[in-house]
Amino acid sequence: SYVRRNDRVEDIRQIEQQGAANPVLRELSGEGFGDVEVAARYQLNSGARGWPIFVANARVKPPTGTGPYDVAFDEAGVAQELSTGSGFWGAEAGVTMLYPSDPAVIFGGLSYLSNFGRDINKRAGDIDVLHVEPGDAISASLGFGLALNPRFSFSLGYAHNYIFETSTDLRTVRGPSTQTASGFHVGAMQMGWSFRLTDKLTLSNNFEFGVTSEAPDLRVVFRAPYRF
Fold first, then answer.
1. What is the phi/psi pair of residue 116, to 5°?
2. In this structure, how many other beta carbons lie within 10 angstroms of the beta carbon of residue 64?
3. Which of 99, 122, 124, 174 has the greatest CB tally within 10 Å of its CB?
4. Which candidate, 57, 61, 80, places its Cα nearest to that of 70?
5. Burial of 163: CB neighbours in 10 Å, binned 0-12, 13-18, 19+
6. What is the CA radius of gyration of the chain?
7. 12: three-class secondary structure by DSSP
8. Residue with the larger pLDDT of the pair 142 and 12
9. What does the alpha-carbon distance between residue 86 and residue 117 come to, in Å, rounded to a whole number?
10. Contacts of 49 by beta carbon, 8 Å cutoff, 6+ apart
11. pLDDT interval class at 17 (50, 70, 90)
């Protein structure tokens, strides 16, 4: 996938150095290829006798995008651009529930993502980042999809993620230390549509609107899955 990001952050370093009365805002951006994902799904039951359909999901995510430690840093250790990928290997397992209620389908999901730490060995300002253990994540979602005709449908839903604490091994002028970042919540309202162009090609467009402080304000995804 191709990723383009824009963000506005407060430069605390400039506030401290200049004694600024108001926050110093910096605009950051990043674009490029993101992390490639390989996924598999398996339907566990038929959904007979009024039961929902349950689907098992598995996903592997290699760090093919530009990670947060792959970007350039200035002399104070402040990143000069945004990453397009996580920078770490990840593996996810979960289950999705589908309950048909013509013309709608109610869906829900629960999954667990395990991120694998790695050695960074990169200098950011006057700090050496040695090793990072990114936090795992647990995710839940709920919503519905509504078919307006045999080719066009739209969906509404909510997704919530909890990312566990991240541990970072550092080396500073005072010696080695370990920094632990607290876990946080990422919640987003979701809206999307899907249009089947042919029997094999479908176009889809999804929007996510962040509702927690750690979530992006807006995320837009375009997909064109092709069935061979």
1. -105, 125
2. 15
3. 124
4. 80
5. buried
6. 21
7. helix
8. 142
9. 11
10. none
11. very low
Greatest pairwise CA separation for the chain in angstroms: 69
Instruction: Say if CB 129 and CB 103 are below 8 A apart.
Output: no
Q: Round to whole Å and give the CA distance between 59 and 143.
A: 21
107, 142 in Cβ contact below 8 A? yes
Q: Which of these, 69, 76, 205, 73, lies nearest to 129 by C-alpha position?
A: 69
The pTM of the full predicted model, rounded to 2 decimals, is 0.82
Model confidence pLDDT, tens digit, residues 57-76: 999 999 998 999 888 888 77
User: Which amino acid is residue 128, in one-letter code?
Assistant: D
215 CB neighbour count, 10 Å cutoff = 20
Which pLDDT score, from 0 to 100, does residue 24 have?
63
Strand positions, DSSP E, 52-117:
53-61, 90-101, 104-115
Reference 70, options 86, 58, 54, 55; nearest CA is: 86
